[in-house]
């Protein structure tokens, strides 16, 4: 690990990663996730804002590019280490205390369902300081409150550098609400995620 990774990860044990993204997020994720080794020992759960009137092919598209197994999250599905999960369209995705997924069709949050905030807040309550939250490019304030909850629970918070983001609204909202542990470019976020393996 380099000095930045050492400083961010020192003394941490990470069991799970949650990632939120909106406009421009697919490109950012395609630059981050394919570099993760198959032996990456944490679950990675992603909420990407999608139209809720069509099926999602995200799991299929990313599985073709990742060494790790990729699945679309489903209700009551237990989280497994070393697996990437994508939220299905049209449902809010939460993580329960027993580390299983829960789907709901409550009202949209920030005009989005799934909402990043709901995933991150529930994951923070489930994992506490063992969670890492990453917020990428996007055009709403979704994710800001979720990142603040992760920080309040002692988890690691990383926001994409607004200057590096396709749309800076989402990263800026999170930074303004509560300063994250790190503000990094997409390549640096990918390198940090790879370094997380050494915290196991």
Give a structural overview.
By secondary structure, the chain is α/β, with parallel strands linked by helices. It has one domain (3-199): Rossmann fold (3-Layer(aba) Sandwich), CATH 3.40.50.180. 31% of the residues lie in helices and 20% in strands. The protein has helices at 3-9, 25-32, 58-63, 116-127, 144-152, 169-177, 186-196; strands spanning 16-21, 43-48, 70-72, 84-86, 92-95, 101-104, 131-135, 156-160, 182-184. The strands form two sheets. A seven-stranded parallel sheet has the order 3-4-2-1-7-8-9, sandwiched between helices. Strands 5-6 form a two-stranded antiparallel sheet. Helix 5 links the parallel strand 7 (131-135) and strand 8. Helix 4 packs parallel to helix 5. The radius of gyration is 15 Å and the shape is globular. It starts with a helix and ends with a helix. The model has no long low-confidence stretch (mean pLDDT 93).
